[in-house]
Design brief:
This protein is an alpha/beta fold. It contains five helices and twelve strands. The chain has a single domain (about 5-220), classed as CNF1/YfiH-like putative cysteine hydrolases, CATH 3.60.140.10. The chain is about 25% helix and about 25% strand. The model has no long low-confidence stretch (mean pLDDT about 95).
Length: about 230
Amino acid sequence: MTSSLPVEFFPPLNTLPGARHCFTTRVAGVDVQADKAEALRRLDQVHRGIRKELGIGSGALVTAQQVHGNAIGVVDAPITVDRCFDEADGLITNQREVCLGIYVADCCAVYLVDPVRHAIGLVHSGRKGTELGITRRAIALMHERFGTEPGDLVVQLSPCIRPPHYEVDFAAEIVANCRAAGVRQIHDSGICTACDLQRYYSYRAEKGKTGRMLALLTMTADQPAP
């Protein structure tokens, strides 16, 4: 069913009970030679169709404005309508069927799954966000708000730009930050977005006129409460 969809999945997340995820890839036939807002508008119907076909989140879709900062939006109560957190680059929730969404095109989407507390997080971390420690901040906030222990977390890094196409290896810094926070299960895709423009969008390689990949993560309602 999913073979024709422009998506990929990460094996470490596939094995976690209740967690559903995907990472969209380049969509053939959609002209994304435009600014970000217009490119996302053109991709929106495809992204909605992917979410529907995969059954990723029957509830609200929660996104972030993504300003390359380190603010985290928290959803700790039921919501029924889509929401975008202003001035935020990370999202965490302990609510079932709430779907978190982060857009990237060279920056890294960092998936955070706590299979014990059934809490999740999704972070947009490029060079600036990594310098500001956004992933460590999300981990600390999941501990504070949901009781997540860093040692229980499973962390997955999406494809992102890497040397030699970029001067900083911020993916390696994200991994190091997660380890320093006490995370033991860290998985990096190891893929460079600028290396494969047939499959991924790259802001750097395409000089800013390009689309966005969409990272989606949700926790289904069929898991018992912790």
